[in-house]
Amino acid sequence: MDFTLSPEQLLIKDSVARFAAGDHAGTEKWPQFAELGWLAIGAPDELGGFGGPIETLLLMEQFGRGLVRSPYVAQVVLAGQILRAAERTELLERLVEGTERFAVAYEEPQARYDPAAVKTTAVREGEAFVLTGTKVRVLDASTANTLIVSARTGDEISLFAIPANAPNITREPYASEDGYDVANLRLDGVRVDAAQLIGPLGDGLALLDRALDHATAALCAEGLGLMSLMLEATVEYTKQRQQFGVPIGSFQALQHRMAEMFIEVELARSVAYMAAMTLDEKADDPVARRRGVSAAKVQMAKSGRFVGQNAIQLHGGIGMSEEYKVGHYFKRMTMVERLLGDGQYHVARYIASRGAAVTAAPDRDPVGASGSRAS
Amino acid sequence: MDFTLSPEQLLIKDSVARFAAGDHAGTEKWPQFAELGWLAIGAPDELGGFGGPIETLLLMEQFGRGLVRSPYVAQVVLAGQILRAAERTELLERLVEGTERFAVAYEEPQARYDPAAVKTTAVREGEAFVLTGTKVRVLDASTANTLIVSARTGDEISLFAIPANAPNITREPYASEDGYDVANLRLDGVRVDAAQLIGPLGDGLALLDRALDHATAALCAEGLGLMSLMLEATVEYTKQRQQFGVPIGSFQALQHRMAEMFIEVELARSVAYMAAMTLDEKADDPVARRRGVSAAKVQMAKSGRFVGQNAIQLHGGIGMSEEYKVGHYFKRMTMVERLLGDGQYHVARYIASRGAAVTAAPDRDPVGASGSRAS
Amino acid sequence: MDLAFSPEDRAFRDEVRDFIATHLPADIRRKIQAGDHLVKDDYARWQRILFERGWVASGWPKELGGTGWGPIQRHIFYEEIAYGWAPRLLPFGLHMVAPVIIEFGNDAQRARYLPKIASGEEFWCQGYSEPGAGSDLASLSTRAERQGDTYLINGTKTWITAAQWADWIFVLARTDPNAKKQEGISFILVDMKTPGVTVRPIETIDGGKEINEVHLENVVVPVANLVGKENEGWTCAKFLLEHERTGTAGIAGCRQQLETLHELIAHESIDDPRLDERIAQVEIELEALAFTELRTLAAESAGKRPGPESSILKIKGTEIQQALSELALDALGPYAESHLAPKYFNYRKTSIYAGSNEIQKNIIAKRILKL
Amino acid sequence: MDLAFSPEDRAFRDEVRDFIATHLPADIRRKIQAGDHLVKDDYARWQRILFERGWVASGWPKELGGTGWGPIQRHIFYEEIAYGWAPRLLPFGLHMVAPVIIEFGNDAQRARYLPKIASGEEFWCQGYSEPGAGSDLASLSTRAERQGDTYLINGTKTWITAAQWADWIFVLARTDPNAKKQEGISFILVDMKTPGVTVRPIETIDGGKEINEVHLENVVVPVANLVGKENEGWTCAKFLLEHERTGTAGIAGCRQQLETLHELIAHESIDDPRLDERIAQVEIELEALAFTELRTLAAESAGKRPGPESSILKIKGTEIQQALSELALDALGPYAESHLAPKYFNYRKTSIYAGSNEIQKNIIAKRILKL
To answer: Could you report the predicted ipTM of this complex, rounded to two decimals?
Structure first.
């Protein structure tokens, strides 16, 4: 058992940290990401790919600390993992080069985060499929060249790659609370041919479920970064902020609150790693994967809410101000908390995935598979 | 609106307070209670009865403060209210005189507090009924002369008064954690005649439900007394207990904890009164009665747990010791919390009883009927 | 002991309820129901209507136009305002500066300011918090130099609601820099049109723009605008804060939130026992708090001065408001971002302002538990 | 980065697991599974078995009979002890006084005490807490007067687990009454059979009788029983407390509790989504904590001294134990009183002893957050 980073991992961590610490507001840094090779994390070797969930964690944690507003999770992790598992190397290559952008459209009204709740249909017409339905809160939809859309093919769900400018698609873009590019999509009889199938017919849900777990783990890493920075900012602020002639950080009630925030950050750190490890070592065990990742998101949601709310509280009025950073971290944390499934959704998913997993079952690894015994 | 006590109410409060503050350990004070007229609270005038839920509250709050171990709730409130509503004046008279003791046997294995979950049967044989079944956790069963037993008569539930020494009854008495007299009962074909019916045939559940609400409200009052004393003891202790050269009550983290305990005690005080008022003023409205009383028990359970646990925590090691009073209050509070239904049971009962009660419905009284608007 | 309202109180409640139902402009009610931001004119119109009815100056002496209500009637009135989806009366003039002018001001000041405060002809804002201060009010650094019969005021005030609408601001300023902390502070009324007064909006994380910073740069104010004695402004400030802190727990507002929440859940047909239980727990706590408020009102009516118990109402009231905004967010899950997140963000402030909940706990510990 | 245990560690785990399965006396296992109290002989028999296997003196230097385990092996061993329903090794000799004797004692003391501690031939108990002291250890008042080559000890020690079984007690006593607080304290070993030593059991609210008060009245002890230098006992105490606080979070024990809880729910066929959710929340937090412990172990193996991070394990570990005992109570509702309430009562102590959770938060604030 060993938590030390390899030289390569240290290299990424530091370069991302440098970027995140700098000025990255507004303008799109995608080409730079491609150059730095960050878009190749998790890609196969033949595409110059390297690393996996751990490297993604190291990157996203720093993105969180720097409040980097980037489509990285939606592009490289969510779309990337779908394309990789579906072995669509030619598409993945363009993603890695940064020449093509993807948007995964899986959620539907009333689906409440569930990728299986799909009403959109893909009806076969000879060699082609015709897609009709509505997708909501699609990340990066307005910048994407290609949409990856889930649709019902009979009882099962399949994925299709569709040019964003294809006829009969209407996009209603809007900005989420924290300024991310989101859109609702309407498909009215969109024609695609069988070559546009991503993965085998009917494998859509499995592909999505797996890729969503990768993306959720990445969000947990971002949440960790957001939280750890909020804690540091709060500690710093309470040390310099004077009240009644002393720094407010000298008040025991606030000290204990910050100690509790620290504990939550450490638990969040643990589950972020747990999720990444699970993806690494339980890639072939979907039950353990779901359990590990959902557990992580549940803890992240709980810890993030506690840390965020108290960061605001301990900053006082200034924490409420748009001009001061902690408020923006709190808002992003609130979104990360619910993106791809909030605590309620994931605790239900966790319970459902318990299945046979016995508490203290003899031969589990320390990673993933909550309710397991170290082995 | 007026919270001031009448001279009569002040009189009871003070006399009970004096008794509770004195030495009342061990020996049975029942005859003394009868003499003082405490057994007549809530009884009809012709029996020299006086007062109602408010007077019961005043008495039970003091019993709580003094940790008086007494069958008062089981006898005077639970049995008493059944006998009163069923107009069994001759039995009620003996209760008020203190010459006869009753035990209400309504709960059954797996009933989880629900008085409607009755498997015990009363089968008609000519003029008589034959009762068969099992009752659990019957309060005061070993000292009672008369058992009031719920049993199924067809689809409905009826109550029967049975001499405790009747044939075919087996009692397994035991002491609950806090030293109360409890027993499980087994009835193997116990013969009773129709005259032993309490209330009309099939009215048992309504009688029980109402009397249980009265008893639950009384327990809320006891809980209030337990909590307020635990808070006072904790404040006193932390003022005199020195650590690191200062009283531990000077540590802000503990001060805030005690402030939170104080808030919980005040909320508990409010719901104890709310429950009593509901019984007073909503006697004719079972939905409002259930709602008000269950709401009170839910808050009492939550507040009591918080106050009890922190009273122990702030006392430190000595709080764990059997020799020091706060531990005994904590144990009794834990029992009161679950007696006649814990928080989970009553929150479910509260939700179920919402029915048509709209939040902010125009014409509710401030008392009872939670989710109502003052009027 | 009797917890029902008296027949008179019930009659009063019905009167207020009917009045609001019949006199509140429909466009204003719609805005509030929709959760839209109100503009100055909305507040002004509504205050004018209540003013003509004689229902604005609660807590003022009757001879100065006060309503003559007791605590319970005042409570009923504000509850009905909330239930009726009516705008609140902005407190900065009516319930902050006015009581100070009444208590510490002179007759000229009473005659000059009170009528226009009551009619809403002049809007006010508060000028006590400063960037440096916060809960520790007395550590303010705004200076007011006496120069003959004027004061020269320099400083910055912040977290000021509705400053962009205000005609006047009441300022706590240091008139004796050598005196220690609480001493050497004065309470001065400043016309917002005076040269050197600038208002800068502070955008809050929920996108709101009602909070402002007010800069006072070489602002010249006649000494006649001093309320009470020079260097004794802290007495006014303490008096004013007591007033503010004995505020209501916002029960009615919470009940409205709860109602909206139940409607949302019905509308989205969400069926989740875990959620039902969490809501019921908050609902029950709200009822317990409502009853607690009634107990304190009954005590006030019986002549007891509002005391530190009001800290309970502040702490629990804001905790419940925040819990309800979280529940709404959780109930709607993915659909919440757009319209509910801002409310959730906005409500974080309630545990910070008007004496943070930590300060309130200090008050309970010190003044009630005597720790 | 690699979080799986090494093949060697896995092999060791299996070895320990098999050994416990085959060597733990069945009557002892049954007692623990039933939650019955153990008697001295149960602990003694089991320690003897482990001693013969060479598995008792973890953390001791190998030449003194230590196991030579690293942090991860030690962790695995204690986890397996819990999973295997085996008695814990009483820490008062093995992990409290022994490390102090090893670090500060002389060879004669090492030769005299360590072998019998390891074999379990002599049982020990701790004598540092006092009725007056508590978390503020240094404020102890037990006196040890030097009289030639003996000490005359007077005082009372309290909250002493297993004193009724102990052959020896290690006592912190004031040898220089004029020195200030931490100074003038000495660490002295006292034979429980010495005249003047009396043990009084303290019954706890769960009905337990393992806690005791030990009175020392004119107890005469040879100076040879002094460990380290006179008046420098506080160094020993600090060393010992560090050792105690870097205790485990009791993950394995919590997993056992959780397993029992799941069995109870299945057995009573309770179906309540609200309860399932609460259990899942605690279960997830437990996994997060387990992983946190593994992170600290990995750090230790990488040579980092166990630091204040162990406070996290103490706080969360005890919170989870308490949460689980509450869940068991709530799950069983009316049927819980009899057998589960005592456990719930008993677990309240976990957030008090070994440095109360409040003290732990102070440690985090001061030593980690530098507040």
So the answer is: 0.92
